[in-house]
Design goal:
single chain; 65 residues; mainly alpha; rod-shaped
Amino acid sequence: MGINPIRRDNIMQNMALEANALEHERKRAASEQKAKGKQRTGKIVFFVLLVVLFVTVIAYVMYHI
């Protein structure tokens, strides 16, 4: 006497679905970390360019006074 074949298929399907859900969650978490890193890099680049622009404008004004 074994497990009913239909029940065994259900168990296998549930295990496969759970494995897929865990894999999806792992990939999503990994991409979320990359996105946060890119966002931080983007903020740094933005402020550096803002400072460069500010310094350029100040130098231009000082040169033409």
